[in-house]
Amino acid sequence: MDIDRDTLQQLYYYLKLTRHLEERVTSLYRQGKVVGGVWTSNGTEAVSVGFAYALEKDDITAPYFRDMGAFLVRGITPRRIMAQYFGKKTGVSGGKEGNVHIGDINFGVCGFPSHLADNYPVAAGAALAFKIRGEKRIAAACTGDGGTSRGDFHEALNLASVLKLPVVFFCNNNQYAYSMPHQKQMAIKDVAERALAYGMASEIVDGNDVVAVYSVAKKAYEKARAGHVPTFIECKTMRMHGHSEHDAAKYVPRELLEEWKKKDPIQRMEKYLIENNMASDEEMKEIDKRVQDVIEDAEKFAENSPYPDGKEAIEGLYATPIRKGVKEL
User: Under a CB-based contact definition with an 8 Å cutoff, are residues 176 and 167 in contact?
Assistant: First the structure.
């Protein structure tokens, strides 16, 4: 796929923003400033950045908790995300909910629940609505390899295949479902084989190559948009931290981590940009500074934001209007 220079640089920007924002959150967590735990996408950022950047403005995505890149790409600002981790009123959920339970339908992002793969049927439902209305919109959802062993995963794939829905399902196969390695979770080599049972097209892509993920996603979206055909895409990658930041991941062989460290998605994208003359050294430095400035601003914003008032505790629990005016945050 022919990808223009600006798109490639933006993909790189969001890779770096995702990595460094989560690293800052992790640092703040260790200082005791973050409310709750921290689950990062370290090493797997190319998956969420790639599939989210390929979406169009009016499309819907149902990400999961390792999809920080998707939240950022879709327009949920680092300010609101950082405030979410601080439990502040200016956070995505207004100071309520878990800190990774991020979603804002104003930006086409469905809210995420803790139960992995629950977002698959949500995306299928959105796709069904698009088909009924005759809209040229698609839905995309992502879960981890562990999520593909749950019932909601299979129900969503079956429904999407039978009804020929314009939805694309992504699997962030990061090798471990918490501490359960892939080979002990399923008796197949590739998660993508599971889609075959439902007569659904599937693909396997290098999940550490953001250009490859973006390209495969773009083609699947075009197919879904044109003919209401669902696709399942397995992204092979490796979670370089534990399940969360309180997990030392001692169950992961050190040599496996060393092997995947050489495939770091950010380093690979840097090499790609330089070797293909898609970014100069000066442009790379400008992107680094932009990322740093955005994160510094987000941290200050979160620290200076107020906590929610007690009277606001029940707001948002029922069918209240969607909040407007959040883009300036």
Answer: no
Q: Please check whether residue 308 lies inside any domain of the structure.
A: no
- pTM over cut 0.90: yes
Mapped to the 3 state alphabet, what secondary structure does 64-78 carry?
A: CCCCHHHHHHHCCCH
Catalytic residue among 19, 80, 243, 268: 243
- Cα Rg of the chain, angstroms: 19
Q: Which two tokens stand for residue 130?
A: 């698009």
24 is catalytic: no
User: How many C-beta neighbours within 10 Å does residue 66 have?
Assistant: 26
Q: What is the pLDDT of residues 74-119, one digit of tens each?
A: 999 999 999 999 999 999 999 888 888 899 999 999 988 788 899 9
Helix (H) or strand (E) holding 225: helix 210-227
Q: Write the CB contacts of 123 (distance below 8 Å, at least 6 apart in sequence).
A: 60, 61, 62, 110, 139, 140, 141, 156, 167, 169
SS3 231: strand
Do the strands 231-236 and 167-173 form a parallel or antiparallel pair, or are they unpaired? parallel
In a domain, 312, yes or no: no
Q: Residue 183: which CATH number? A: 3.40.50.970
The catalytically annotated residue of 251, 254, 307, 318 is: 251
Total domain count for the chain? 1
d(CA 135, CA 100): 31
Domain region containing 98 = 5-297
Per the CB < 8 A criterion, the answer to whether 235 and 47 are in contact is: yes
What phi and psi, each to the nearest 5 degrees, are found at residue 170? -115, 145
Mutual angle of helices 210-227 and 45-53, in 10-degree steps: 40
pLDDT value of residue 327 = 58
Q: What is the rounded distance in angstroms from the CA atom of residue 213 to the CA atom of residue 206? A: 7
Instruction: Give a yes or no: residue 81 inside a domain.
Output: yes
Residue 59 is encoded by which pair of tokens? Answer: 């499309």
Residue with tokens 């593909």: 148
Active-site residue, 307 included: no
- Indicate which residue of 79, 239, 241, 268 is catalytic: 239
- Confirm whether 251 is a catalytic residue: yes
